[in-house]
Amino acid sequence: MEGVLIGVGVGPGDPELLTLKAINAIKQADVLYIPHIDAAKCRAFDIVKQAVPEALDKEIEGCDFEMTPDPDSRRVRHEIIYDSVRKRLEDGDTVAFITIGDPSVYSTFSYIADLAAKDGKTVKIVSGISSPAECAATLGISLCEGGQPLHIIPGPDGLADALTLPGTKVVMKCPKDLAPVKESIREYTQNTGRPLSVYAVCKCGMPGERVYRGIDELPNDTGYLTTLIIKENR
């Protein structure tokens, strides 16, 4: 019998946010795939080993997700990773692929899951708490209320257009330099006369977490792993 590929969301950073289902999936797995070639540098694995010490005794397979804008190069890398996963599945192993946040939200796991599904393999997903939800909880605010829509933006590119959308905008994967982002927001409010409430959380749930309320409080350089929440003032 072939094995099962399970994408396991481990949340944004705080190991206490792992779900019981995620913990059980990790414990029951024959092998853990992690989204970094070096386990010592993998944020997802750092979260897991704090919540599930048994993970340290598991077989670990590090994945080299090449950070390149070339889609062909990325595709080749994904196929190499999947080929390794496929062999484990055909050996009957239960493969847990851990990923920070939720596997369904801008996750590296989705590329491997797509290849596995096309190959007729059994794929399951264990959802994790996403960074937008935990950032809002950390800030003590709601993401959306009543009929307000919620827009999740993968990055600051095209932010000027995204700001025209109704409701709340969550900007993920913000760059270290937030000066252009702040300028886009200020230009929007000046041109439209519609003030916005701006929040940000850097390294949510991790050591060194920083919280910012208001665009004037937001520094130009926040560091890696910053999520921005932009709400329309009522």
What can you see in these coordinates?
The chain is 32% helix and 23% strand. It is of the alpha/beta class and 234 residues long. It folds into two domains: 4-126, Tetrapyrrole methylase, N-terminal domain (Cobalt-precorrin-4 Transmethylase, domain 1), CATH 3.40.1010.10; 131-232, Tetrapyrrole methylase, C-terminal domain (Methyltransferase, Cobalt-precorrin-4 Transmethylase, Domain 2, 2-Layer Sandwich). It has a five-stranded parallel β-sheet, with helices on both faces. Helix 3 (71-90) crosses helix 4 (109-118). It has helices at residues 20-28, 43-51, 71-90, 109-118, 131-139, 159-162, 179-192; strands at 4-9, 31-34, 59-62, 95-99, 122-126, 150-153, 168-174, 196-202, 210-213, 226-232. The chain is built from seven helices and ten strands. The model has no long low-confidence stretch (mean pLDDT 93).
What secondary-structure arrangement, pairings included, does this model have?
Blueprint: E1 4-9, H1 20-28, E2 31-34, H2 43-51, E3 59-62, H3 71-90, E4 95-99, H4 109-118, E5 122-126, H5 131-139, E6 150-153, H6 159-162, E7 168-174, H7 179-192, E8 196-202, E9 210-213, E10 226-232
Helix pairs in contact: 3-4
Keyphrases for this structure?
23% strand; single chain; 234 residues; Cobalt-precorrin-4 Transmethylase, domain 1; 7 helices; five-stranded parallel sheet; five-stranded mixed sheet; alpha/beta; Methyltransferase, Cobalt-precorrin-4 Transmethylase, Domain 2; 2 domains
**Total count of domains:** 2
The stretches of 5 or more residues where confidence is low (pLDDT under 50) are none
Number of helices: 7
CATH superfamily of the largest domain: Tetrapyrrole methylase, N-terminal domain
What percent strand? Answer: 15-25%
Which class best fits the helix and strand makeup?
alpha/beta
CA distance, first residue to last residue: 57 Å
Order of helices and strands: EHEHEHEHEHEHEHEEE
- Tell me the CATH topology of the largest domain: Cobalt-precorrin-4 Transmethylase, domain 1
Based on CA inertia axes, which overall geometry fits? Answer: elongated
Share of helical residues: 25-40%
| Cα-atom radius of gyration | 19 Å
CATH class of the largest domain: Alpha Beta
Q: How would a textbook summarize the main sheet?
A: 5 strands, parallel
List how many beta strands DSSP finds. 10
Q: What is the averaged pLDDT score?
A: 93
CATH hierarchy: architecture of the largest domain = 3-Layer(aba) Sandwich
The main sheet orders its strands as 3-2-4-1-5
